Amino acid sequence: MEQIITSLLETDMYKFSMGQAIYHQFPSYITTWDFKCRNSGVYFTHKMVEEIRRQIQAYCALRFTEDELGYLRGIEWIKRDYVDFLRLWHPRYEEFSITETEDGCGLSIETSGTWLNTSFYEIPTLAIVNEVYFRMAADYSKLIGSFRQRADKKIAGLADGTFSLGSFSEFGLRRRLSREAQEYAVSTIVKVQKQNGFKDSLFVGTSNVWLAKQLAVSPVGTMAHEFVQCVGQGNRKHNPAYSNWYMLDAWVKEYGVLNGIALTDTITTPVFCRDFRKTYATLFSGVRHDSGDPYRWGELMTEHYKSLGIDPRTKTLLFSDSLDFARATALYRHFKDKARVAFGIGTYIANDTDVPPLNIVMKVTECNDGPVAKISDAEGKNMCKDPAYIDYLKRTIQWRLEHKEM
Predict the structure, then answer these.
(1) CB-side neighbour CA atoms (13 Å) of 403
(2) H or E element at residue 179
(3) SS3 content of the chain, % helix, strand, coil (to 5)
(4) How many CB atoms lie within 10 A of CB 107?
């Protein structure tokens, strides 16, 4: 199999935005990450695991080129000292543990090391696992054929107005069918938009930094749950119910008014709103939805902005949870007169075939020798090795919700 990841730019943009803040404020933090496959009936064979090992070894041999570093330096909010750090940085295969298991999906992947290192491993690892699986477990030629047919049809729906998305971007790198598939879908979207335009939609970019560079579109992405978890829970002196406050404070120290879309659901959106007061709500350009009922979330956030004296029509609601074009169209029509609406759409663009996609994740489970966890707005998205810590975190959240002045 050809090398899957061929550039260290081939990761999501938010790995660089979080990475810069980690470099400046949390360089000594140590994290552990664990892989999980949520699909039932999926099994990684010995040959698959061996190929995954080989692909990750090849990824770890990569270095940033001067051309790639120059591209990053051209992004408004990336600072020169961080680019100089990246000039020296490279992945370390010694920080990976890749083993076969007799139970579950047959594959275990764990990474451990400084947060500066391990944060970068998540997206390339998932992209490698996905592509290895689909190339070895299925008839790939048939899959890519069905993928192209579906992509062409849905893009035609953007052109003729069947779908109305407002602003949207592509977030599919971690769960893409293959590099070939993601490139085909995104390049076709870009080409059709340039040639004919979309009736009521605007493609604004992709989270895949390498692909954004290749296609001369914007790389998009700000933060992920890991940032809230590690900043808010990695320091054991902190009450984890205030994780969002610590995250917001660190982000503003790093970026001021730049790069400001806040993720709300790491320890539930109602707790997030306790810390997303007028200063932060003014500085951040918007908020991102990633779990729970999107309509309920959107109404909650627009009302929260109003309660702070902020017109929600000046702020962005970015939806990114399990979207397809039809669901995004319904959300856009519901909220377009209430706020600025945007979408980050992943698997539906990058892995829509006749075969169900993998539901795989790589999550941070420990920070500084202690557990961290996410308590999202929907059950089933949590991942933590320590049930006692989950119980503790839930109790701190409940305490805060019951004490409004806190």
Answers:
(1) 9
(2) helix 179-195
(3) 50, 15, 35
(4) 23
